[in-house]
């Protein structure tokens, strides 16, 4: 996907555009919660395909568009009400803190769809595990699946592997 972009139109090409619109509207089409884990995975895969397709169409004009309908109730934009909306994500996602991997965007999801825990290198430390435990214990009415989302070119994982290999190298040097 990215290679295609880099090999295509130049950055100065005015037709090289894509637009993602989060459309907050009270008439937004309601997307029901997936009934089970397989349906949740299918929705995530479908959303990711839509995002990837958007990038593949970037060289066309008019701009490629991806519209994500958002119910304003999901962010508490209720006229005359101050109560927070009920949290009801259908998936918990453990993602890397890497700024290039915005979780909701790459799955074409909006607010209140995903319970996202991000940490550099997707490490399952106590804080991450506790957050996931919270989701499983308190959001079970809506939660259908847990996703561990890796990505290519992860600097945190590369750094961790480098540290491990360096320690291994030092141990081997001490033994010889
Ligand atoms: Zn990463």
Automatic annotation (TrEMBL):
Name of the top EC class for this enzyme: lyase
SMART domains, per database record: Pro_CA
Catalysed reaction equations from the record: hydrogencarbonate + H(+) = CO2 + H2O
Keyword Cell wall biogenesis/degradation belongs to the record: no
Signal sequence segment: none
Keywords: Lyase, Metal-binding, Plasmid, Zinc
Family recorded in the similarity comment: Belongs to the beta-class carbonic anhydrase family.
Protein name as catalogued: carbonic anhydrase
């Amino acid at each position: 996907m990215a290679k295609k972009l880099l090999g295509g139109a130049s950055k100065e090409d005015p037709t090289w555009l894509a637009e993602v619109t989060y459309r907050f509207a009270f008439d937004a089409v309601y997307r029901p919660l997936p009934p089970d884990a397989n349906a949740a995975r299918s929705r995530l895969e479908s959303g990711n395909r839509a995002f990837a397709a958007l990038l593949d169409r970037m060289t066309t004009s008019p701009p490629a568009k991806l519209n994500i309908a958002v119910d304003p109730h999901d962010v508490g934009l209720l006229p005359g009400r101050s109560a927070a909306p009920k949290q009801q994500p259908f998936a918990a996602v453990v993602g890397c803190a890497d700024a290039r991997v915005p979780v909701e965007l790459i799955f074409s999801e909006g607010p209140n769809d995903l319970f996202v825990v991000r940490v550099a290198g997707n490490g399952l430390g106590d804080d991450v595990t506790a957050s996931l435990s919270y989701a499983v214990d308190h959001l079970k009415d809506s939660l259908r699946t847990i996703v561990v989302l890796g990505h290519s070119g992860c600097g945190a994982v590369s750094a961790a592997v480098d540290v491990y290999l360096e320690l291994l190298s030092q141990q081997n040097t001490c033994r010889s």
